[in-house]
Design a protein that fits this description.
This protein has one domain: 3-Layer(aba) Sandwich (Rossmann fold). It is about 40% helix and about 15% strand. It contains five helices and four strands, in the order βαβαβααβα. α1 crosses α5. The longest helix is centred in the last third of the chain and has 30 residues. The two termini are about 15 Å apart.
Length: about 160
């Protein structure tokens, strides 16, 4: 049994690959890498085939995260094989739920920051693309906090599937 998580942002070069990298590291640290697969995609094809933004790579490397990445577009057919589809902001959430053919697929779509109890009412991870490096650092901090809660939720789902 494999549990599959896919993070989705706009172009799959900033927020979603950042979340993919952080969450993969959390999964490895937890010893769950043999049962949890982590991936990312975008809602649009503007950067398809490209590596992550250099600023994303820079802040990830600075914090010790690894990323081997090629941007791609989320395909509706993926819902069938995914357990969770994690949107980075409410725009992505709406777009992904619109792509979901059935309610069961729409229920798989969640906002990343909904897993951060300290997030408050603003559950969007802001797009750092048009700003400076500090926006990428802020984004990474949000992602790291939310990935801790997401890992707890995935653990609970896995335990529920095993019982």
């Amino acid at each position: 049994m494999t549990y599959r998580v896919c993070f989705v942002c706009t172009g799959n070069i900033c927020r979603s690959p950042m979340a993919e990298s952080v969450f993969r590291a959390r999964v490895v640290e937890a010893g769950l890498d043999s049962v949890v697969e982590v991936d990312s995609a975008g809602t649009g094809d503007w950067h398809e085939g490209e590596n992550a933004d250099l600023r994303t790579l820079s802040v990830l490397e600075e914090r010790g995260y690894a990323l081997d990445h090629a941007a791609r577009v989320f395909e509706p057919s993926w819902f069938a094989r995914l357990d969770l589809v994690i949107a980075l902001d409410t725009g992505h959430l709406k777009a992904l739920r619109h792509l979901a053919a059935i309610g069961e697929d729409a229920a798989k779509v969640r906002l990343l920051r909904s897993y951060d109890p300290g997030a408050g009412d603003d559950l969007d991870v802001p797009d750092p693309y048009y700003g400076g490096l500090d926006g990428f650092e802020e984004c990474l901090e949000m992602v790291e906090r939310a990935c801790t809660g997401l890992l707890d939720a995935v653990r609970q789902d896995l335990e529920g599937q095993l019982t």
